[in-house]
Amino acid sequence: MKANSLYKQVVDKTAVYLGPAADLFITRQIVGHLDMAPEKLRTQDLAEIIKWIKPAIALLTDSPELVDKYIDSLEKLASQPRKAP
Q: Is the dihedral of CA 70, 44, 20, 56 positive or negative?
């Protein structure tokens, strides 16, 4: 997997909230809900995966503000222009 891949960026943002469990959490979300390899994640896939991530993260915390902050960081990532591989 490329060090600068979109997947890694999503994992890095998730690690702020889930620590070392972030990689496994995001991998399971992508494989389970998008039926694709994590390294194949594309910007256009983020909106769909965010729909699944938000309720899962909400189950792990009593802080709606924390969930909103995390989801906002993913939505900003989804809106950034990407370079073609």
A: positive
